[in-house]
Amino acid sequence: MRLSSRATVIGLFLGGLLLAGCAPRWAERDVILDDVIPREGWNARPWLEGMQRQDITHITIHHTADRHNPERSLEAKLLALQSFSQETTTLWDGRSKPVWADVPYHYFIDVHGQIAEARPIGYCGDSNTPYDPCGHALIVLEGNFEEEVPTPEQVASLMRMTRGLARHYGVDASRIGGHNDYAETLCPGRNLTQLLPHLRRLVSDGN
Ligand SMILES: [Zn+2]
Q1: Could you tell me the distance, in angstroms and rounded to a whole number, from the CA of residue 120 to the centre of ligand 1?
Q2: pLDDT per residue as tens digits for the range 7-49
Q3: CA distance 109 to 162
Q4: Could you read off the pLDDT of 144-200 as tens digits, one per residue?
Q5: What is the whole-number distance in angstroms between the Cα of residue 95 and the centre of ligand 1?
Q6: How far is the CA of 86 from the centre of ligand 1 (A)?
Q7: How many angstroms separate the first and last alpha carbons of the chain?
Q8: Measured in angstroms, how far is the CA atom of residue 187 from the centroid of ligand 1?
Q9: Residues 94/74, Cβ–Cβ less than 8 Å
Q10: Whole-angstrom Cα distance, residue 206 to residue 167?
């Protein structure tokens, strides 16, 4: 009895330590779909300091503006995006981009339709354009949809992700939009922008 109760106490203590160790890390997570690849899956580096907490009220869609690249791995794409994000850079129009704590978006959908967790959803994203992305769940699709069209796999993943987020956070269909609804930009490109009414209908119909 003595031994087993001592073992139980030790077990509980160790279990508590483990939970305490894991909790802060996993508490940041809010993975909506089972098949979202977590940050560990693409060997994300840690995010930097300075992120702001958010409550989700909008879902906003972007494109990477880089054309589909089916040969490059998801990991390589996301690590490159993270490096770009965490450095200061001179943008195409001559403005300088400040250091961001992490990838500016919360979910990345590659050309094959794989969905990866990017910035933890509990924190505001970032933008090069003058709109405040706080409160927005930001989904980015790989591609330049001014020039090409999203793959059927990307569209299917975007539908599932958006519907999952809308249900989870109670986001009304009217608050689902594209980057170009909030800022003067071509993002997410005309070929993706024209799918957004369908996406809103899907959510408002509860399908
Ligand atoms: Zn955008």
Answers
A1: 18
A2: 554 455 444 444 444 444 444 454 688 889 999 999 999 999 9
A3: 12
A4: 999 999 999 999 999 999 999 999 999 999 999 999 999 999 999 999 999 999 999
A5: 16
A6: 17
A7: 56
A8: 5
A9: no
A10: 9
